[in-house]
Specification:
Helix 1 packs antiparallel against helix 8, helix 2 (62-72) packs parallel to helix 8 (245-255) and helix 3 packs across helix 4. This protein is globular. The strands form three sheets. It has a seven-stranded mixed sheet with strand order 2-8-7-6-5-3-4, sandwiched between helices. Strands 9-10-13-12 form a four-stranded antiparallel sheet, covered by helices on one side. The chain has two domains: 7-36 and 259-350, Aspartate Aminotransferase, domain 1; 44-257, 3-Layer(aba) Sandwich (Aspartate Aminotransferase, domain 2). Helix 4 links the parallel strand 3 and strand 4 (124-127). It has helices at residues 40-50, 62-72, 84-96, 112-119, 137-141, 162-170, 225-238, 245-255, 258-281, 303-312, 336-350, and strands at 27-28, 79-82, 103-106, 124-127, 146-150, 177-180, 201-206, 219-223, 284-286, 293-298, 315-316, 318-319, 328-332. By secondary structure, it is an alpha/beta fold.
Length: 355
């Protein structure tokens, strides 16, 4: 018990980030980072911007918002830029949830949703995934409150189609629906195009995954001007310089090099399908992931045994202790070489490939 912490936060359970090893060298497949470097154009712009960091960054993030608007076919006033997509999600919990509008999300999803609800002291309604780990769209449609849906979902990697997202958005047009598209670029369908016809839809994305900028911390939200204005009120009330000038410049450079991003995403998707095939040969059940990771369990080994065995062999993956998914591990899709190291370790642990 911390005697200095305000009582209002005394029961807050913080989010636990994936391990970032600082001593032993691992094949690091635990935090869904890209195995490839950022675009050369992004790095060039970052270097140029670093020469002028004596000045504050642009609080309007104007150049980047215009670039994002052009990229996604919206207006600049439909875009907010944030310190990672976590920040825009936190703003959404604060802005669109209260005692009359609980936060609604799935039981197996991004772990920060629970933390954001508790941090902002708003009630939450947790809806279980179906037995196949798919999102229960029917139940979500009739559950009152502000919806938060990761699509593709994390850690399962399973994606909803645009028709299902549309059903959720249209089920109650007086409530906000937040679609968290952190992993959408690896094979899922974005619903950004729906914001024109659905003023209650907020879509969030990040530069962390597909654009190889996890350490730069850059995210954004796209929605109606009314939704974005509400989020900007919170941003200007907390930290109007929330995105630093180097990161803003990197984001602009990355958007000028979408071919580079697209090629990296295509390679990662190809490596993912290879990894899924090989894992199944080793006796793993693997979900139909549309993200840059796979979610799998072995027919004989527990999730903890797989995690520990890989760690001993120099490979880091992510294990979750929640009862429903304790036999699963989430494995980031790395390079073909990194996937090979992982598979060799698993083959040793499982006794060889199945026929």
């Amino acid at each position: 018990m911390n005697g200095f912490l305000s009582e209002k936060f005394s029961s807050l359970v913080p989010y636990v980030p994936g391990e970032q090893p600082k001593e032993r060298k691992f094949v690091k497949l635990n935090t869904n980072e890209s195995p490839y470097p950022p675009s050369p154009k992004a790095l060039k712009k970052a270097k140029e911007a670093a020469e002028n960091v004596k000045l504050y960054s642009d609080p309007e993030c104007l150049k980047l918002r215009k670039a994002l608007a052009a990229r996604f076919g919206v207006n600049k006033d439909n875009v907010i830029c944030t310190n990672g997509s976590d920040e825009v999600l936190n703003f959404a919990f604060a802005a669109f949830c209260d005692e009359k509008r609980p936060a609604v999300f799935c039981d197996v999803t991004y772990g920060f949703y629970t933390v954001f609800a508790d941090f902002n002291r708003v009630p939450k309604t947790v809806i279980p995934l179906k037995s196949d780990l798919g999102v229960d769209v029917d139940r979500l449609c009739v559950t009152p409150g502000t919806l938060f849906i990761a699509n593709p979902n994390a850690p399962t990697g399973i994606a909803l189609g645009s028709d299902e997202i549309k059903r959720l958005v249209e089920s109650d047009e007086k409530r906000v629906v937040v679609i968290d598209e952190a992993y959408v670029d690896f094979g899922a369908e974005s619903c950004v195009g729906m914001v024109w016809d659905h003023p209650n839809l907020l879509v969030t994305q990040t530069f962390s995954k597909s654009r190889s900028m996890a350490g730069a911390r850059l995210g954004f939200g796209i929605g109606s001007e009314e939704l974005i204005s509400a989020l900007e009120t919170l941003r200007y009330s907390t930290n109007p310089y929330n995105v630093n000038s180097v990161t803003l410049a990197m984001g602009e450079g990355a958007l000028e090099d979408e071919d580079y991003t697209g090629k990296n995403c295509a390679v990662i998707a190809e490596n993912r399908e290879f990894l899924i095939r090989e894992l199944k040969k080793l006796g793993f059940f693997v979900t139909d992931s549309r993200a840059n990771f796979v979610f799998c369990r072995h027919e004989k080994l527990s999730g903890e045994e797989v995690y520990s065995g890989l760690r001993e062999r120099g490979v880091l993956v992510r294990h979750f202790g929640a009862e429903r998914i304790k036999d699963f591990n989430r494995i980031t899709v790395g390079t073909k070489e990194e996937c090979g190291v992982l598979l060799a370790a698993l083959e040793e642990m499982t006794g060889g490939k199945k026929q």
